[in-house]
Inverse folding.
C-alpha cells in the first residue's frame, strides 16, 4: 500500500436549517478553507471526488451544479459517488493507490432540512416490498433499538448516557449543532419519537458540508507536519432486507474493521458515525474496541448529522485530532443505509 | 506512459435485452440479467467476485434513493465492498473506470461492475427538465438543451443539413445487427429519417435516442486472472474530465474537457494518431449531430472537419473508422448504462465477440461517454494486445 494521509480538513457550521445559501454557497467557504490550508487550488489536485444525493436536493443531477464550488477550470479529473463523502474518499484513496496521482480533494454536502427527512430516507428501501409501507428512518432505527433491548444488551438508560456524553463532548466543537446536554435523569423524561427511541437517542436534522485533502508520500509530508496516515481502509455492505439480518450486530463493520486492522494495535480514540444512540455500541462491539477507547470526542453524529457528510466528518475529525497531537492511533467509521447496512472503517496513525 | 498501476482487463461482458419497458423484471431482475451474463462469459460465480461497483443516473428515474443498497443482495455484494458512482450521463463509463482502478490499485483481483436504468419507471424527459429555482427553464428534455449547441456547430463548421440524417440512418441500421439493441428498425431509410417529426430543430424524432430499460455488466480482472482467457480486453488507459456549469468561458460545442480527456487517455494508451491507431469507436451520440461534433473533440478530425468524415462514409461499419457498430445510444439508451455499453461494446470488439456487428481485425477501440451539459467526460482505450506491465 502506498502511504497516504489526510492532510487537511474543513467543515461548515453544522446547522439545523440553511435557507439563505444554496449548496454551492454552503460548500464554497469549506473548499476555500482547504485550499488555504494546503496552498493548492482545483488544478493542483490529481483527482477530485464528492459525495451527495439527489434525494436531498430534490433535483436530478444536483451534484453537477455544486461542482462549481471548486472552480473546475481548466477542466479537472473528477468523479462523484451517490453516497456519503467517506466513500468518495475511498475512491480517491484507490486512485492514489494506482500511482496515477499524488493528491486528491474530497468534499461532501447535505441539506437534510428542505424535505421531510424521515420520509425521504424511507425511499432507500426495497421499492416493491418495503418502501410502499413508508417505514421511515427513525422507525427502522427503532426496530433495531428494540432488538438490542430484547437481547438484553443495553438499556434505554445506557442510550441516554451515550447521548449525554456525545453532546457534552460537542461543547468543545464549535462546528457542532447540538452542544451540551441535560443530565441523564432529565433525558429519561424525554418523549418517545418512535418507541423505544426517545428524542435524545435520535440525531438532529442537520445541513452541512465538509472537505478533506488526501496526499501521498512526500506530498503529504510537505503539506503537513504531522499527517494522519491511512493505515487501513475497508468498507463492506450487509443485505438490506431486515428479515435476513440480526440487527443487534453489524457483520459488515466487523469485516471492514478486521480488514482495516483495527485490532492490530491499541486505539486511542474512535469517531463512529452512529446517528442513533443504540448504534454506538453495535459498532463498538463489531470493531472489538476496548472499553477504555474514547468514542466521538467531536460529539459524533448525535451532535450533528448532515446526510452524506457526517461520515466524511468522522474521518476529518479523527485526522485533525491526530495531527494536533491528541493521540497516535485512531479509528474513523462511516455508515450508510437503514440500520447500519453499509460501513466503512479507516485506521489512522500519526507519528 | 501507460495506465498507472497493475494491468486491468475485461474478461466478462453481459447486457440485457433492452426495450422501452422491461415489465417482465424488477430492478433486481434487470441488473441480475446483465450481471449473470457477464459472470457466465467470465466463467465465474458470484463467489469469485471481490467487489461490486454500481453506476446509474438520477435516482429519481426509478424513484428509489440509492438503489444499490436494496440491490446489494441481488448483486452478490453482501459481505463485500460496494460502491455507487453517479457522474451524470457519463456515469456508465465512469463506473467502469472506478472498477478498473480497484484492479489497478492492487486492492482487488476480480471486480463486477454493473450500470443500469429502468426508465419506464418514470418519465425521463421531464426528469431532465430542471425546475426553477435551480436554473432557468431550458425547453423540455435534453434535446432542448443540446439543440442550440448543434445549431452553433452547424454554423461554425458550415455543415450541410443532411449529416445528422446520415448518422441516424447508420446507427439505426447498425442496431439491426445487434440482438440486444432496443430499436430494430430495418425499414429505416434516409427519407424516413428526413420526414420524421422535427422535435428540437435541427433534431428530428429519428435523430433522437430512445428511452430504454436496460443494464450492462463487466467483470474486470488483474493480469494473473486474465491470463487464463483467450481474449481479454486489456485496459490501456482511462480518463475522466469535468467542467463547471456556470462559466462563460466554456465552449459547449467543442468542450475543453473532452479534448483534455482524450489527450490524457491517448497518452496513457500510447496513441499518437487516433485516426490511424484506433480501429473502432463506441461514442456517446444521443442526438445524431454529436457524431461529427465528437469526431472533432476526440481528435479524429480537425475543427470543422468532422462532418466530412461522416459524409464520406468513414464512420460506416465498412469505413476506415467505424463509429457505433452496435447502433449506439441512438438505438439503445438506458441512460445510466449507456456509457458502460459504449465501454463494453469497445471491449467486445477487441475481444472479437461482437457477432454480426464485429469489425474485422479490431485490435484497439475507444469507449466514450459524456454527460451533464456536455461537461462530464469518461473514456477508455482497450486492446487485444497485452501491454508491457
Amino acid at each position: 500500500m502506498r502511504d497516504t494521509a489526510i492532510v487537511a480538513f474543513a467543515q461548515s457550521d453544522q446547522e439545523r436549517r440553511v435557507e439563505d445559501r444554496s449548496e454551492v454557497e454552503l460548500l464554497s467557504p469549506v473548499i476555500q478553507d482547504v485550499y488555504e490550508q494546503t496552498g493548492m487550488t482545483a488544478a493542483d489536485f490529481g483527482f477530485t471526488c464528492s459525495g451527495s444525493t439527489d434525494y436531498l436536493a430534490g433535483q436530478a443531477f444536483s451534484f453537477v451544479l455544486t461542482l462549481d464550488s471548486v472552480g473546475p477550470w481548466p477542466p479537472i479529473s473528477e468523479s462523484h459517488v451517490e453516497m456519503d463523502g467517506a466513500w468518495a474518499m475511498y475512491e480517491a484513496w484507490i486512485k492514489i493507490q494506482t500511482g496515477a496521482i499524488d493528491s486528491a480533494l474530497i468534499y461532501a454536502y447535505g441539506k437534510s432540512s428542505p424535505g421531510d427527512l424521515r420520509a425521504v430516507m424511507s425511499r432507500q428501501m426495497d421499492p416493491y416490498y418495503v418502501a410502499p409501507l413508508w417505514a421511515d428512518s427513525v422507525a427502522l432505527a427503532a426496530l433495531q433499538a428494540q432488538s438490542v433491548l430484547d437481547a438484553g444488551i443495553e438499556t434505554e438508560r445506557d442510550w441516554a448516557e451515550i447521548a449525554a456524553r456525545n453532546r457534552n463532548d460537542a461543547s468543545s466543537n464549535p462546528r457542532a449543532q447540538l452542544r451540551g446536554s441535560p443530565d441523564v435523569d432529565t433525558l429519561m423524561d424525554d418523549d418517545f419519537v418512535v418507541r423505544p427511541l426517545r428524542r435524545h437517542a435520535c440525531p438532529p436534522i442537520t445541513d452541512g458540508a465538509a472537505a478533506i485533502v488526501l496526499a501521498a508520500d512526500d506530498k503529504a509530508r510537505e503539506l503537513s507536519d504531522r499527517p494522519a496516515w491511512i493505515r487501513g481502509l475497508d468498507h463492506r455492505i450487509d443485505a438490506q432486507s431486515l428479515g435476513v439480518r440480526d440487527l443487534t450486530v453489524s457483520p459488515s463493520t466487523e469485516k471492514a474493521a478486521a480488514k482495516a486492522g483495527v485490532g492490530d494495535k491499541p486505539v486511542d480514540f474512535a469517531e463512529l458515525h452512529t446517528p442513533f444512540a443504540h448504534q454506538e455500541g453495535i459498532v463498538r462491539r463489531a470493531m472489538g474496541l476496548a472499553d477504555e477507547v474514547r468514542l466521538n470526542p467531536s460529539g459524533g453524529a448525535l451532535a450533528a448529522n448532515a446526510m452524506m457528510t457526517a461520515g466524511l466528518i468522522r474521518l476529518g475529525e479523527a485526522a485533525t485530532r491526530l495531527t494536533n497531537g491528541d493521540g497516535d492511533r485512531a479509528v474513523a467509521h462511516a455508515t450508510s443505509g437503514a440500520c447500519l447496512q453499509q460501513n466503512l472503517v479507516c485506521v489512522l496513525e500519526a507519528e | 506512459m501507460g495506465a498507472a498501476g497493475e494491468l486491468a482487463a475485461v474478461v466478462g461482458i453481459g447486457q440485457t435485452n433492452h426495450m422501452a419497458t422491461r415489465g417482465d423484471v424488477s430492478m433486481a431482475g434487470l441488473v441480475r440479467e446483465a450481471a449473470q451474463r457477464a459472470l457466465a462469459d467470465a466463467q465465474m460465480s458470484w463467489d469469485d467476485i471481490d467487489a461490486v461497483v454500481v453506476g446509474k443516473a438520477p435516482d429519481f428515474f426509478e424513484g428509489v434513493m440509492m438503489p444499490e443498497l436494496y440491490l446489494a443482495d441481488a448483486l452478490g455484494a453482501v459481505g463485500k465492498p460496494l460502491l455507487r458512482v453517479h457522474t451524470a450521463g457519463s456515469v456508465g463509463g465512469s463506473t467502469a473506470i472506478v472498477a478498473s482502478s480497484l484492479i489497478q490499485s492492487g486492492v482487488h483481483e476480480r471486480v463486477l461492475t454493473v450500470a443500469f436504468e429502468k426508465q419506464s419507471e418514470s418519465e425521463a424527459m421531464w426528469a431532465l427538465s430542471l425546475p426553477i429555482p435551480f436554473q432557468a427553464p431550458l425547453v423540455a428534455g435534453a434535446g432542448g438543451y443540446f439543440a442550440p449547441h448543434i445549431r452553433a456547430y452547424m454554423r461554425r463548421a458550415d455543415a450541410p443539413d443532411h449529416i445528422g440524417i446520415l448518422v441516424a440512418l447508420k446507427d439505426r441500421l447498425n442496431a439491426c445487427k445487434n440482438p440486444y439493441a432496443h430499436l430494430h428498425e430495418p425499414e429505416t431509410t434516409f427519407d424516413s429519417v428526413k420526414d420524421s417529426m422535427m422535435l428540437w430543430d435541427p433534431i428530428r424524432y429519428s435523430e433522437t435516442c430512445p428511452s430504454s430499460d436496460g443494464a450492462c455488466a463487466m467483470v474486470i480482472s488483474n493480469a494473473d486472472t486474465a491470463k487464463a482467457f483467450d481474449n481479454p480486453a486489456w485496459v490501456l488507459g482511462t480518463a475522466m474530465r469535468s467542467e463547471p456549469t456556470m462559466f462563460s468561458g466554456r465552449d459547449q460545442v467543442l468542450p475543453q474537457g473532452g479534448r483534455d480527456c482524450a489527450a490524457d487517455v491517448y497518452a496513457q494508451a500510447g496513441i499518437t494518431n487516433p485516426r490511424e491507431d484506433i480501429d473502432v469507436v463506441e461514442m456517446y451520440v444521443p442526438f445524431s449531430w454529436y457524431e461529427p461534433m465528437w469526431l472533432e473533440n476526440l481528435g479524429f478530425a480537425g475543427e470543422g472537419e468532422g462532418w466530412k468524415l461522416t459524409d464520406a462514409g468513414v464512420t460506416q461499419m465498412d469505413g476506415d473508422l467505424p463509429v457505433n457498430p452496435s447502433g449506439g445510444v441512438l438505438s439503445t439508451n438506458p441512460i445510466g448504462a449507456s456509457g458502460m455499453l459504449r465501454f463494453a461494446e469497445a471491449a467486445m470488439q477487441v475481444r472479437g465477440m461482437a457477432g454480426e456487428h464485429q469489425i474485422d481485425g479490431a485490435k484497439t477501440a475507444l469507449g466514450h461517454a459524456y454527460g451533464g451539459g456536455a461537461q462530464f467526460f469518461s473514456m477508455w482505450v482497450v486492446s487485444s494486445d497485452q501491454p508491457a506491465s
About this structure: Chain A touches chain B through 61 residues (CB under 8 Å). The mean pLDDT of chain A is 97. The longest strand of chain A covers residues 207-216. The radius of gyration of chain A is 19 Å.
